[in-house]
Write a structure and sequence with these properties.
The structure is a homodimer of 377-residue chains. Chain A has helices spanning 40-48, 66-71, 90-104, 122-137, 180-189, 203-213, 215-229, 233-240, 249-254, 275-281, 361-371, and strands at 4-9, 57-62, 81-84, 109-114, 118-119, 141-146, 157-165, 168-175, 192-202, 260-265, 269-270, 296-298, 304-307, 332-336, 341-345, 349-354. Chain A has 377 residues and is an alpha/beta fold. The first copy, chain A, has two domains: 4-270, Spore Coat Polysaccharide Biosynthesis Protein SpsA, Chain A (Alpha-Beta Complex), CATH 3.90.550.10; 275-376, no CATH class. In chain A, the strands form four sheets. Chain A has a five-stranded mixed barrel. A three-stranded mixed sheet of chain A has the order 13-15-16, covered by helices on one side. A two-stranded antiparallel sheet of chain A has the order 5-11. In chain A, strand 7 (157-165) and strand 8 form a beta hairpin. The two termini of chain A are 43 Å apart. At the A-B interface, strand 14, strand 15, strand 16 and helix 11 of A face strand 14, strand 15, strand 16 and helix 11 of B. Strand 14 of chain A pairs parallel with strand 16 of chain B.
Chain lengths: 377, 377
């Protein structure tokens, strides 16, 4: 499929990994999935490299993040970065990518992939991707539905309909995040898959769907596209983009359109949603701890300590998510009588939080925002 | 009393304040009692300044600690530092101080005071001290007994006997650390006081008591004294000191000698025994937290966080025990959902421990010792 393109959605600011993730260094630019040398977005690009030539790899991100994002993706040309002047959710962003790619490749088949997920079984993932791209080639707007492994209330679900091709089903419905009871019913029922935010379609099909279901967006995108054709895209973007409707592709298009397919996938998908997940994914010692080299743990179990300082040692201190690689002998970390906590230190901040409250890191970001301390977020 | 001298015992290595206290920077050199600019030993010297002229202030410490100790005590001459070549507990150390002081002032009355305690009510303390020195002048070997405020099992006690002068009692017995039941009985009974390790005596009286109860020590001290008189003290010290019996002044002399007095004192005495005590003594916010400036606390109560790093900010980050004084804007500390913990960070180590386990910091030092990582202790 020589017309296959991929758009990696990398505009997220991600507050759940504070203090490691920051406005200027969001989650997808951090190596949070075990390999201290590979940011999540680099892993995303590497995973699909066998299916998508690098010159067909596009990155949707914010203007402020273009430089660090390209730095994390050697070999990707600056022209492949689609910098949104403001964030307007996924529909405008995907619509703009679609229009841009279609200008040079009207027969483009596009895979849209989040930048910040982890996938354990990459061959199985690529197999599902191939199936989804084939469905897209045949005119479906396809998504991959992750086979649930628990009654998760934090994700949207996709209800599976009839099989339409080998490994491909019609999508009966997109479902909002369920409550606990409903999530358990979904898990038992076996007809609902997690919506992992991956979409596959012909550019021409998506353009038509947007025109039908989001005409205001289509009109705006046409203005940008026309300006781009005459070499005046930057001004049009700055002018038009902020006026586009802020809506997700799920709500704006997928839930309403016809011929929506879902490909069930089981490949160790993980949305790397919190420090809790980082602990789950990391290599642990016999006491369940993830600690910097040389740490002392006394009566301490199931803790995650990440020393991400770059400080006076001329390098990082390692740890599961250490940046930069070289493990040097850093601070002596000592935990006594502490269980199930997360401690993350960066050059300018330290977080201490119970693992099970890892989601509440947002509260710190909220407090700093309320104080107007933007430089600490 | 122009013959009053004071000997501050400052040889302690103190592992209970790791990572702030280190072999080369023990507890008494740290500002652990609330004023971030005043090491405990400096407070000890300041407290007695109205009673003891500075040229009569002697410091007993180890050779390795002479320089930092003198640095903490501006105005004290280097000749006033009594550097023990090896630690042999308090009897040899006090005996040697006694002999040294008596050479130039045979009528010396000596107060021996630990370097690392805190006293809240300084005038009341000086009043007790004056009473104790008066008793010493009259030939008693006196000690101050702290009136207990709780059934403490971590201290030795002194049993109070008959009154022998206003505010002065004979000491009926020195008692080892009691068990819980006995400590409670002591508290109810009102006849037992805490042994705070403060001693007052004429040099001549102590010399006689040592000669009687610790003849081996007396003989060794005589050799050192004779060598000192002919200007050869250093060699004699190095030769003799390691051979002296290692025994406390309490066990070796006070428990056995006659005419031992105790002066009951109530002046907010605190032995600053652990990070728990530091938290108790510190100024706390409305949630009971002691936090570095600018910290964020969400659902977090009764914590002690000390950022003692000197790092890249060109200064310390403050906190109750911050060293150096100037509070600059340092790291953003964030605690979410954590209660009753202690976090202490220095330039080369971080400790996380529940407040109630603060004594177990020793386990960290033990672990580092076992690993042979002396530079981290």
């Amino acid at each position: 499929m020589s017309h296959v393109h991929a758009v990696i959605l990398a505009g997220g600011s991600g507050t759940r990994f504070w203090p490691a993730s920051r406005r200027k260094r969001p989650k997808q630019l951090l190596p949070l999935a075990g390999d201290p040398n590979e940011p999540l977005i680099a892993a995303t690009a590497r995973r699909i490299a066998p299916l998508v030539p690098i010159e067909h790899l596009w990155i949707s991100t914010s203007a402020a993040l273009v430089a660090p994002t390209l730095a994390a993706l050697p070999g990707v040309a600056a022209s492949r970065a689609l910098a949104e002047p403001v964030a307007r959710n996924t529909a405008p962003c995907i619509g703009w990518a679609c229009a841009t790619i279609a200008r040079s490749d009207p027969d483009a088949i596009i895979a849209v992939l989040p930048a910040d997920h982890h996938i354990a079984d990459e061959p199985a993932f690529r197999e599902a991707l191939t199936t989804a791209l084939r469905a897209a080639e045949e005119g479906w707007m396809a998504t991959i539905g992750i086979v649930p492994t628990r009654a998760e209330t934090g994700y949207g679900y996709i209800e599976v309909g009839d099989a339409v091709a080998p490994g491909v089903h019609a999508a009966a419905a997109f479902v909002e995040k369920p409550n606990r009871e409903r999530a358990e019913a979904y898990l038992r029922g076996g007809k609902h898959l997690w919506n992992g935010g991956m979409f596959f379609f012909r550019a021409s099909v998506m353009k038509k769907a947007i025109a039908k279901h989001l005409p205001a967006l289509a009109a705006g995108l046409d203005r940008i596209d026309a300006a781009a054709a005459r070499g005046d895209e930057a001004r049009a973007l700055a002018e038009v983009f902020p006026t586009l409707p802020s809506i997700s592709i799920d709500h704006g298009v997928m839930e309403k359109a016809e011929k929506i397919a879902v490909i069930p996938g089981s490949f160790g998908w993980n949305d790397v949603g919190s420090w809790q997940v980082t602990w789950e994914m990391a290599q642990k010692d016999s006491a369940g701890n993830v600690l910097p080299e040389g740490a002392v743990a006394v009566d301490a179990k199931n803790n995650l300590v990440l020393d991400l300082t770059t400080g006076t040692n001329g390098g990082t201190n390692g740890g599961a998510a250490g940046q930069g690689g070289a493990k040097v002998k850093g601070k002596t970390w000592a935990l006594v009588g502490m269980n199930d906590i997360v401690v993350v230190e960066t050059d300018d901040a330290v977080l201490v939080i119970p693992r099970e409250r890892a989601q509440d890191v947002r509260a710190v970001v909220d407090a700093l925002t309320a104080r107007g301390e933007a430089d600490r977020i």
